[in-house]
Design brief:
The protein has 183 residues and is mainly α. Helix content is 73%, strand content 0%. The protein has eight helices and no strands. The longest helix has 27 residues. The chain starts with a helix and ends with a helix. 19% of the residues are buried.
Length: 183
């Protein structure tokens, strides 16, 4: 009887030790994003042309997007993760309040790409253990999407109005014929 009791206690102890070993193997180490990290995006933010600045200076939603993108450009993964919701909200507001002169397919498509990159950044940050490198890569893609939007806004502000374009495309020989008839 004592041997059965002794054998039962030994089996119970061995079973508990094996279970404890499997529990420690299943736990993955948790890494928190470091708020003191000096890691930043390496690409530069493009600037608006003077014409684009003039046309967008009264448009506060764009100014807010520009400000938060500058903040994200200078931020480390901890703060990028922290600001991801704000960026998404500001880009959504910008898309909804887009003025009529900016409602071009090229601008809308760039805003859609920007919104997609923001959503991907939010998804990466919402995981249990966000990876700092993946967050930095997503932030780099976000900055590239913003730069693409800036390029489109610059091109749109430099576009030639239709009436000037018609004058430029008019045949100069026609003008001389019209002038000679009038004289």
């Amino acid at each position: 009887m004592r041997t059965f009791l002794f054998l039962g206690i030994i089996l119970l102890c061995v079973g508990c030790q094996n279970q404890g070993a499997t529990n420690t193997q299943e736990e993955k180490p948790t890494f928190k994003l470091d708020s003191l990290s000096k890691e930043k995006v390496k690409i530069e933010i493009l600037q608006l042309s003077p014409e684009a600045i003039k046309s967008l200076e009264s448009f506060h939603d764009f100014q807010n997007v520009k400000s938060i993108i500058n903040t994200m450009h200078n931020a480390n993964p901890f703060y990028i993760n922290k600001y991801a919701d704000s960026v998404d909200l500001l880009i959504g507001t910008f898309k909804e309040t887009l003025p009529e002169e900016l409602r071009k397919n090229t601008i809308k498509s760039r805003l859609s790409v920007l919104s997609t990159e923001t959503n991907l950044l939010k998804e990466l940050g919402s995981t249990k253990n966000p990876d700092a490198k993946k967050i930095m890569d997503a932030n780099t893609r976000l900055i590239k999407a913003y730069n693409s939007l800036v390029i489109q806004l610059n091109e749109l502000s430099l576009a030639i109005p239709e009436n000037i374009e018609k004058e430029l495309l008019r045949d100069p020989e026609e003008d001389t014929e019209i002038l000679s008839k009038n004289l």
